[in-house]
Specification:
Largest sheet: 8 strands, mixed
CATH architecture of the largest domain: 2-Layer Sandwich
CATH topology of the largest domain: Alpha-Beta Plaits
Number of helices: 17
CATH class of the largest domain: Alpha Beta
Number of strands: 20
Structural class: alpha+beta
Helix content: 40-55%
CATH superfamily of the largest domain: Nucleotide cyclase, GGDEF domain
Strand content: 25-35%
Radius of gyration: 53 Å
């Protein structure tokens, strides 16, 4: 408002001076034509003097008014450019204002890049239009001098100026009036402002150069602020993007993560922590870390104190807390210090791994391994299970409990099952010790084979050793049982080809062996006496003299045309 009032007063004063000047000239002209004799000569001299004085005052006023308007524009534009932090906007305001104040034909603003080279950031003409690439012909001699010396340059006619008149750019581009001033920030030249006129000589004055230099000082600060603001914006965008990425990573971590400051105030928790503890982020954030740990297990508080005192993490603590809405779960907990860039502890991070499902699967696997040979389990790939099998030579072992029917009438079902399991467990342990594959338990009998799915060149010898281990294990077991509960095994072993693979359907599969060698081994076992181990000639041929044996009477096995020659194994040699 004060600027407007000042401008109005200046315009009124200019108008009054113009009216006074016009009146004086009118009187002067009248007196020049009509010189009344009644008026003394001193009157004419006074009028002529007043007219000359009004003319001089008017010229001085116009000069002062021009300076006032320039200073007012300088202050006003300084305020305008400092209200914007958008670099391109600031540059455009700066350039258009300079051209308007100086009456230049063209203006260029150049800034130093990261390598120190001057780069044109904006180029405008007197009608406030951006120049195209074909109009960017300027005197780099002038620009380089200003940038290197840090002093302003004014030439009223570059064609005749001894400093620049011989320069190719000045001659080729017909450059005449030129002003160039440095842009400074903290005594360092950060760029230059260059204006010129290719038509008029003597356009620029020393006062305009001073005005341009003063304006450049304000512009340099505004430009630097805009550049810093742009840099901060870029850094903020990078930090925001990084934070967004970290938030996504943090949220996607399968482990529950809760961070707290040194006083136990919760700072962050991810989605996994909410799910594991069955609490919302708001609910967790309203608690202290000590409260959360106490609700899980009071024994965790000393561990937290140890972490804070020693700056060392505590890893792999296993607890089984009861969680509201979930019941009892299995957790593995780690507490680690959170440190800043100077390695000073600023808080702690609590990492929660829900082991409930994993432990359940491990328990199921252990149970499965008791039902199926571990060797078979290792060979199974759930993603590539297909029905069918392949032909392979195996050694089959059948072991059947003798005397079980007799004691079943004397014992309760619970006692009977207990005794049966102890005998079958002894047999299974002996078979697995030789890395045999237990196919199934058939009531009071067990069926196993060797050489599949893992190849075993000594499969026949392994089967015989397993049978001898069964017999020896029963001797140890019988020392713990009363005589009426002592049972024995009859064992039959045969080597032959069978088809091994997955039999059944996609919903119910069984890994088993099918072939005549299975039936032969079973028939031999049916003819074995208690604690007797019978094998066929095919087994003997593969023992390579490692066992002592003797032939027994040939067996007429069901389904066989000819009697089957068998041998009784005594011991290993």
């Amino acid at each position: 408002m004060s600027e407007i009032k000042s401008a109005v007063r200046g315009d009124q004063l200019a108008a009054n001076l113009e009216n006074l000047r016009s009146a004086c000239y009118a009187i002067y002209n009248y007196l020049q034509v009509n010189r009344p004799a009644a008026l003394p000569p001193s009157f004419f001299e006074t009028v002529f003097g007043i007219t000359a004085l009004v003319k001089k005052i008017t010229a001085q006023f116009e000069e002062l008014e021009e300076e006032r308007r320039s200073l007012t524009a300088l202050a006003g534009m300084g305020q305008v450019i400092n209200t914007s932090l958008e670099l391109n906007t600031v540059l455009q305001i700066v350039m258009d204002t300079i051209i308007r104040l100086t009456g230049a034909e063209r203006g260029f603003l150049m800034l130093k890049d990261d390598t120190g080279n001057l780069v044109t950031r904006i180029a405008r003409n007197w009608v406030q239009e951006s120049l195209n690439t074909t109009e960017l012909h300027i005197s780099f001699t002038v620009i380089d001098r200003v940038a290197s010396e840090g002093l302003p340059v004014l030439t009223t006619n570059a064609q005749e100026d001894p400093r620049f008149g011989k320069q190719d750019s000045v001659i080729a581009h017909n450059l005449r009036s030129i002003m160039c001033v440095p842009l400074r920030v903290k005594s360092e030249v950060t760029g230059v402002i260059y204006v010129d006129n290719r038509i008029r000589s003597g356009l620029f004055t020393a006062k305009q150069l001073d005005l341009l230099a003063a304006f450049a000082n304000q512009a340099a600060v505004a430009i630097e602020n805009a550049r810093l603001f742009a840099s901060v914006q870029r850094s903020l965008a990078e930090v925001t993007e990084l934070k967004s990425l970290m938030d996504k990573v943090f949220a996607s971590i399968a482990s529950g993560v809760i961070t707290a400051d040194i006083d136990g105030n919760i700072l962050l928790c991810n989605r996994a922590a909410e799910q594991i503890l069955n609490q919302s982020a708001t609910g967790l954030g309203s608690q202290k870390l000590q409260q959360i740990l106490t609700s899980l297990s009071p024994a965790l508080i000393p561990e937290l104190q140890q972490v804070l005192q020693t700056d060392q993490p505590v890893l792999g603590l296993e607890i089984s807390p009861a969680i509201a809405g979930r019941g009892r779960i299995d957790l593995r907990i780690s507490i680690t210090p959170v440190k800043d860039g100077q390695q000073q502890t600023q808080g702690v991070a609590l990492v929660l791994d829900d082991m409930t499902e994993k432990k359940l699967l491990e328990a199921q696997r252990r149970l499965f391994e008791k039902m199926v040979s571990p060797a078979v389990i290792r060979q199974l790939n759930p993603d590539s299970l297909i029905l069918g099998g392949q032909r392979k030579e195996i050694t089959v072992l059948f072991a059947d409990i003798r005397g079980f029917t007799g004691i079943s009438e004397k014992l309760s079902p619970e006692e009977l099952v207990s005794i049966l399991n102890r005998h079958l467990a002894a047999a299974a342990e002996a078979i697995l010790q030789e890395e045999g594959t237990i196919d199934k338990f058939l009531g009071d009998a067990v069926m196993a084979w060797f050489n599949a799915p893992v190849r075993q060149p000594d499969h026949a010898l392994r089967a015989v050793r397993a049978a001898l281990h069964i017999r020896d294990s029963l001797k140890s077991l019988h020392q713990e049982l009363p005589p009426e509960q002592r049972l024995s095994f009859g064992i039959g072993i045969h080597t032959g080809e069978a088809v091994l693979g997955l039999i059944g359907s996609e919903k119910r599969l069984e890994y088993t062996a099918i072939g005549d060698c299975i039936n032969t081994a079973k028939r031999i076992q049916e003819n074995a006496r208690p604690n007797q181990i019978l094998v066929t000639q095919e087994v003997i041929d593969r023992l390579a003299g490692y066992a002592a044996y003797q032939p027994v009477e040939a067996i007429r096995a069901k389904g066989k045309r000819e009697p089957v020659q068998v041998y009784e194994i005594n011991f290993l040699v």
